[in-house]
Structures are given as structure tokens and as C-alpha cells.
Design a protein that fits this description.
- The protein is an alpha/beta fold.
- The strands form 4 sheets. It has an 11-stranded mixed beta sheet with strand order 8-7-6-9-5-10-11-12-13-14-15, sandwiched between helices. Strands 16-17-21-18-19-20 form a 6-stranded mixed beta sheet, sandwiched between helices.
- The termini are far apart.
- About 35% of the residues lie in helices and about 25% in strands.
Length: about 500
């Protein structure tokens, strides 16, 4: 590919180098001779400061949004807007070969994309998935680092999906990705809005700014599928210029309605009403939030072309999502559940659902992530205190923030609540203590990490898989308990 071909679709100025492009990057650390370097100003570094060095290293061209007086300089209005176009061109514009369904919102994105992907695959469509837990190219799973990858990684992944013959791509679209233009240039056949509650205010600063970022997705779609039970969903339904479809479990005015809801420990069921049709639906997870996720997924799949009766029947075959209300096998005989809930609303939904289906004593281990929105920490703790019988407040991903500062921010939500709580910054020790203190008739919930198999500490990430930790610790504790009972039994004498 020549530099001129890489610039297709962009307005630019400068002397065009007639060179072959061997690579493309906005990270000066990755630059190699023959690559095009895109200068971007970030939160801590400005790529323009490395432009001269890029030329010295043999860059095929340097893309910049201000005149640096360098040879091989390509001047564009905004490199952040140009970068997604450059990346799409570099990988042959793979998005043009597939149809896209995007899901945005504070909670429910991951489960929704898994459900939609399941429905499309069950209907015979080869489908790719991009999300927090993992990426999928049809039946092949790949690791995921971000909810929505940056433009280069995204286009590289899309190229692999197109080469594999994927017809559809279902993807989580985060507010960060929308604000940072990572998905610019994509067009979504259907876009789903799940809900909006407090999160990411360290980045967006205000709820208005956060909502505005989410709203950008719906300027890039043909049909919006909106949760009518969320205030922001109703606002979108009233104001979006694109075609809108709604879902609800509270009002018959929506396009897709759940009625006759039954919640059980092993799942939920309801009657789906759409137009003059009414169909039975069963899903593998309990709770009001699960009903909304299922409604949004069915609506998205149907609007994308899956027959209604097939979608309503096939959703029962989706077993769930790793780290989302997931039961962890253990040797102690009581339920241990891990969930990714890491906002006040997410915790409220997870614990209220659990409390609605059981009277068992509930122990909750949770922490708040470091270097993230500090204002939500006390709210997270208060949500736990409303439902838990016992609480262990610990660490999540503290990053470079002092663990006791994070815990101190959360404590007001527990103090004076009347709940039995203790503080244990070491998350491994907290889980071990919780397992040791629980027995028959108890339920243990581990909140915040979910599917993650790492913990980010001040000096970097360490391997930390709670599913494996529970299995190992419970096996050891079970052996200890069995040995203790043998010593006490008269039959052992």
C-alpha cells in the first residue's frame, strides 16, 4: 500500500511521499522504518514531540495536525479523527464487508452482546463478537484487553473476522471508545441502549458528558433499540432522529414487552409480547436486569432479521457469560458466585436479585477500583450494606492509588448501616476468610472482578483468577474440616 492509498477519504496537505507503507502506529515505541507515524496528543504525552525522531528512524510519513516543518509531513485537521480512517484503509476497510450491531450503556453490555451473538449464530449467521470478556471470530475465542479496542486493534480484528466469512459483528461500544473516536467510520445496522447510571466520571466529569458520549452511537445507526424503563432510554426514544424500537417489562407501550415474569434460582421466564404475538421465553439467569438484557437482545436480533419465534426459543440455549452471576465450583457445599458488578447500580441489581430468590445468609466480598471515579465508592458500599448480612471490604484493582485511601472512600457507605463488616485489603486473604466463615445455608458473592484473571497493583498486574482461587482454597478447607471431624468422631478411635 502506498501512502497515497492510506490517505483515501481524508482531506490533507503536504508533499506526498511516494513510498510503500510497511506499518502504521500512533505509538512511538512501536515505530519501525517504513511505517507511518500518527501524532496524537494524549493525557500524558503528545506524539508531536516524537515526530522529528520518527523521521530520523525512517518513517514513511508523519501525520500531524500542526505544521512541524518536517520532511514527509502530512497535515490533517485532527489526527484523532484521521487515525480511524487511516487504520480502516490500512486493513482494507473490512467493516464494509459485514453488518454491525452495537451495544452501549453502563450495565448489561457484555451479557447483551453474548446473547445477540448466540441468537445470530443459532439462526445460521457466522458472527464475530467484540467485548470485555473476550473477542470471538465465529467459534474461535481470543483474549480481550479493552471493552472496545483502539482503532488499529479494532480494524485488525475486523479484518480477521471478514477473512473468516463473518456476516455480522456484535460489539460492546464503551463511552471511552465513542469519546475517543475509536469506532468512527463504522455504521451500525442496530444499536442497543441498556441503561445509564453513575460510572466513569473520572473521565467524563459529569453525567451529562457521559450521556452525550453514549448518545454518539445513535448518530451512527439505522435502528436504535432502547430500554424504555430507563430515564435516559426514554429521553433517547423521544429525541433520536433515527428509527427507534423500545423494550420494557413495566409498560405495554414498548415494542417488545415482558409480562408474567417468573424468577427462579436457575433462571427466569416470561411471556414476550411483540405486536399481536405472544411467545414464551426462558433464560438461564435470574433477575430483572436479566429480563432487560434478554428483551434488548431479542429485539436487536429480530430487527437484524432473525425470525421472532426463533429468537424467543433460541435464547434459552445461551448458558451465560463468564464472570456474570457465575457459580464457581467449590468443595464446601454452599454457593459461591462471582460477578463483575462494580457500580452502585450494578451491585444493587446483583444483590437485590439474589435476595429476591433466597433467604440464605449472604456474605459479600467487594472492593472499589483505584484511579477511577472516587465519588461512586461510598454508593457501592451502601448498596452492599442494603442486602448483605456480612461484608468484607477489600481491594479490587488499586493500581497506583493507596489501598487504604480507596477503602476510606468506601467506608461511609458501611458505617452506621448496621451490617457486620470488616476491612481486609489483601483480596486473597479476604476470599480465604469468607470461605472459612461460610457453611451450609450461606451464599458467598465475590463482586467486582468477574471474568478478570488478574489484579492491577501499584507495580503492575499479577495473575488473580477468583474461580481458580475458590476451587483451590475450598478444597484445602474441605480437607481440614474433614480431618477435624474425623478426630472428633468416636468411630475414628
Amino acid at each position: 500500500m502506498l501512502v497515497s492509498e492510506l490517505l483515501t477519504g481524508l482531506t490533507w496537505s503536504g508533499e506526498l511521499p511516494d513510498r510503500e507503507v510497511l506499518g502504521l502506529t500512533a505509538d512511538s515505541r512501536q515505530l519501525e522504518p517504513g511505517w507511518v507515524f500518527v501524532c496524537q496528543k494524549g493525557l500524558r504525552f503528545d506524539g508531536h514531540d516524537f515526530a522529528a525522531r520518527a523521521v530520523e528512524l525512517g518513517a514513511a510519513a508523519v501525520v500531524t495536525d500542526r505544521d512541524l516543518g518536517l520532511p514527509g509531513q502530512i497535515l490533517v485537521e485532527d489526527t484523532h479523527l484521521a487515525y480511524p480512517v487511516l487504520c480502516a484503509n490500512y486493513f482494507g476497510r473490512p467493516a464494509e464487508k459485514m453488518k454491525f450491531i452495537g451495544v452501549t450503556g453502563t450495565n448489561g453490555k457484555t451479557t447483551s452482546v453474548f446473547l445477540i451473538k448466540h441468537l445470530l449464530s443459532a439462526a445460521g449467521h457466522r458472527t464475530g463478537l467484540i467485548g470485555t470478556v473476550e473477542n470471538q471470530i465465529d467459534t474461535i475465542s481470543l483474549p480481550s484487553k479493552y471493552t472496545t479496542p483502539d482503532a488499529y486493534q479494532l480494524q485488525s480484528l475486523l479484518a480477521k473476522m471478514a477473512a473468516a466469512g463473518c456476516e455480522y459483528v456484535v460489539m460492546e461500544v464503551s463511552s471511552h471508545a465513542l469519546a475517543q473516536h475509536r469506532v468512527d467510520g463504522l455504521h451500525f445496522e442496530v444499536a442497543v441502549f441498556t441503561n445509564l447510571t453513575q460510572d466513569h466520571l473520572d473521565f467524563h466529569h459529569t453525567m451529562e458528558e457521559y450521556f452525550a458520549a453514549k448518545r454518539r452511537l445513535f448518530s451512527m445507526c439505522d435502528t436504535a433499540v432502547l430500554n424504555l424503563d430507563d430515564a435516559h432510554g426514554r429521553l433517547l426514544a423521544e429525541t433520536l432522529p433515527c428509527r427507534t424500537v423500545t423494550f420494557s417489562d413495566r409498560t405495554a407501550d414498548a415494542g417488545y414487552v415482558a409480562k408474567g415474569i417468573e424468577v427462579r434460582p436457575d433462571g427466569s421466564s416470561f411471556r414476550l409480547v411483540h405486536g399481536d404475538r405472544e411467545l414464551p421465553v426462558r433464560i438461564a439467569t435470574p433477575g430483572d436486569f436479566s429480563i432487560h438484557n434478554a428483551l434488548g437482545a431479542i429485539a436487536a436480533a429480530v430487527e437484524a432479521g432473525v425470525p421472532l419465534d426463533r429468537a424467543a426459543a433460541d435464547i434459552a440455549g445461551c448458558a451465560g457469560v463468564p464472570g456474570r452471576f457465575e457459580v464457581c465450583p467449590n468443595a464446601l457445599g454452599f454457593p459461591v458466585i462471582r460477578d463483575y458488578a462494580h457500580t452502585p447500580d450494578g451491585i444493587e441489581k446483583a444483590l437485590s436479585t439474589m435476595r429476591s430468590i433466597t433467604d440464605a445468609r449472604m456474605t459479600v466480598v467487594f472492593g472499589c477500583p483505584g484511579l477511577r471515579d472516587r465519588s461512586k465508592r461510598a454508593g457501592m458500599a451502601a448498596a452492599v450494606a442494603r442486602y448483605a448480612d456480612r461484608v468484607i471490604l477489600t481491594s479490587d484493582n488499586p493500581r497506583e492509588e493507596p489501598e487504604m485511601q480507596i477503602i476510606g472512600d468506601a467506608l461511609p457507605g458501611l458505617e452506621n448501616s448496621g451490617v457486620d463488616y470488616r476491612v481486609m485489603p489483601d483480596r486473597f486473604a479476604a476470599i480465604e476468610t469468607a470461605l472459612a466463615s461460610c457453611g451450609e445455608g450461606d451464599i458467598l458473592l465475590l463482586l467486582g472482578k468477574g471474568h478478570e484473571d488478574y489484579q492491577v497493583l501499584a507495580d503492575g498486574a499479577v495473575y488473580f483468577n477468583e474461580k481458580e482461587i475458590v476451587a483451590d482454597l475450598s478444597a484445602r478447607l474441605a480437607r481440614q474440616r474433614n480431618q477435624g471431624s474425623e478426630k472428633e468422631s468416636p468411630c475414628s478411635r
